[in-house]
Write a structure and sequence with these properties.
This protein is α+β, with helices and mostly antiparallel strands. It has 28 helices and 13 strands. About 50% of the residues lie in helices and about 10% in strands. It starts with a helix and ends with a helix.
Length: about 525
């Protein structure tokens, strides 16, 4: 323990080979070698870096953005690393907010509404030996009060609960997860700072953990999920996970049981909503992690080949690729729709010894059952749960296309999500394609066109009523009538049904003719047969 403390104090001057291998060797790679296109760097990220540098601090674009720039891609998100503390960063920007407890970082916000952009700024962190950290007996939730005054703390298993000790850049690089995510780019002088051969790994298309993988997974088990996410994201570019990095994944996945459920829920959403949901499912199966990470994720993997769920995953990937927003409520509503649909049908039919319910109460109860069984309290039953419920509850309303219902439905806040949900149902044959197209046109049409569409529905309903009348079976004849006579009347009835329906849809005449064919006293001849013969 004393030796480790002395080594920590002496740092590089100790000449320890262990210290050198841990923190790596600083390499400054010039523009003519790394060949990053400066035009791919976000102007707002440049502004954050420049502002910090002009204030006298070190500042770099860091992480996945540097990796993507090296590969010639335009990053979607930009993070910045600096030696300024969160309070110092916040003081330099008009709209900056310190967030987080486990890792304190600053969000610098540009723009407003849907067009806003967040540049995440983190302070260089020291590489701390977990054996020297403060230990707590409980977890992040049960030890909340105890952790409030701690900067570096671990639980009994070695999982890091607090990591807010600031340090030099070389130590910050060592505590990052993968080599390709541990590079720093200065857009001012266009130099990439690399401590762990990240540029070489990027060129070799290799995803490699910094340090001992098993130890790093133990420090933070969520790194297991990050390994899956990055391997899925980079698989399309030809990246493969290093064997040594992949080997401890299955055994280390047991450590996820101690991670707060809310954090796992958030990490699951990142797996499914970063534009690589289909690739993520493939990686989970390939790495042997199809089950056990998170119960709801198990359901996603299990149902990924079902047409409806697969269509939802593909649609989510497409929207992310096109830069469109995606909502977790929509994707989860798609994944759990089979449970809702089946429970809804069972309650209406009165299965399992229950009394049959009306459609809407049955749907509400089925939704409650799914929330209790699949989601629990992780979402807090807040906006996510409310949005999912609205999407499901609107589905039966799409069947009603008369009166004021269509007008009120298109005004609902969640109409577009509910319509997209119904559109997917139509794509897999669960709903009529004609209904989906009708709602698509109605939602974008002007008032005159909407009236025409409603009139079309009324005409369609009249036609269906006429068809139902023609298909209505004739009443059974009396047993006392001879069989030949019954057959003759049946043939006559068919002819009457086929030609005697008036244009306005009135169906009373054929029924009257059948009734008048019944045997009557003298003078009451059967009109049905005579009419049929004359016609």
């Amino acid at each position: 323990m004393i030796k480790k403390f002395i080594d920590k104090l002496l740092g590089k001057t100790a000449g320890s080979t262990q210290g050198k291998s841990r923190f790596g060797k600083r390499q400054e790679v010039p523009a003519e070698v790394h060949k990053i296109d400066p035009a791919l760097v976000d102007e707002r990220a440049k502004n954050v870096v420049t502002t910090l540098q002009q204030a006298g601090y070190e500042a770099y674009v860091v992480g996945g953005a540097v990796r993507d720039l090296l590969l010639g891609l335009r990053p979607k998100d930009f993070d910045v690393a600096t030696n300024a503390t969160p309070e110092q960063v916040k003081s330099l920007f008009r709209r900056a907010f310190i967030i987080g407890r486990r890792f304190r970082i600053v969000h610098v916000v540009y723009g407003r509404g849907r067009e806003h952009e967040v540049i995440e700024v983190s302070t260089f962190r020291a590489y701390m030996d977990n054996t020297a950290a403060e230990q707590v007996a409980g977890n992040e939730r049960t030890s909340k009060g105890e952790l409030a005054s701690m900067k570096h703390a671990v639980d009994a298993s070695g999982r890091v609960l607090r990591d807010n000790v600031w340090g030099p850049q070389e130590e910050d690089a060592a505590r990052r997860d993968f080599t390709v995510n541990a590079m720093y780019y200065d857009p001012a002088n266009q130099v990439v700072v690399d401590y762990h051969n990240g540029i070489k790994d990027a060129q070799k298309l290799t995803l490699r953990m910094i340090g001992d993988p098993a130890t790093r997974y133990r420090e933070d088990p969520v790194r297991i999920i990050r390994a899956i996410r990055f391997s899925a994201k980079l698989a399309a570019l030809g990246f493969k996970m290093e064997a040594k990095t992949a080997a401890p994944l299955i055994e280390s996945s047991k450590l996820l049981a101690d991670v707060p459920q809310s954090r796992l829920f958030d990490e699951m959403l990142k797996l499914l909503q970063t534009g690589h949901a289909i690739a993520t499912v493939e990686q989970l199966n390939k790495l042997g992690l199809a089950k056990g990470i998170y119960p709801l994720l198990d359901v996603v993997v299990e149902r990924a080949d079902q047409p409806f769920v697969k269509a939802a995953l593909q649609d989510t990937d497409r929207r992310v690729g096109e830069g469109k927003p995606v909502a977790p409520s929509f994707l989860l509503a798609c994944v759990l729709w089979a449970d809702v649909r089946d429970g809804w049908a069972q309650r209406q039919e009165g299965q399992r010894g229950q009394r049959p319910q009306a459609p809407f109460p049955a749907l509400q109860d089925a939704i409650d059952d799914v929330f209790n069984a699949r989601i629990g309290d992780v979402s807090g039953r807040g906006k996510l749960a409310a949005d999912m419920r609205e999407i499901w509850m609107m589905q039966p309303r799409f069947d009603k296309r008369t009166g004021s219902t269509p007008y009120s439905l298109v005004e609902q806040a969640r109409f577009r999500a509910a319509f997209d949900f119904m559109r997917l149902r139509a794509d897999v044959g669960e709903v009529s394609e004609a209904i989906a197209e009708w709602w698509q046109e109605f939602s974008t049409a002007d008032d005159l066109r909407r009236q025409d569409l409603l009139e079309q529905v009324r005409e369609e309903q009249k036609v269906r009523q006429r068809v139902r009348v023609r298909e209505t079976p004739a009443p059974k004849p009396r047993n006392s009538e001879p069989a030949a006579r019954r057959n003759e009347e049946a043939e006559s009835d068919d002819e009457v049904e086929a030609v005697a329906v008036p244009p306005d849809g009135e169906a009373a005449a054929p029924r009257k003719r059948r009734r008048r064919r019944k045997p009557r006293p003298a003078g009451g001849g059967g009109e049905g047969g005579g009419s049929a013969a004359s016609e």
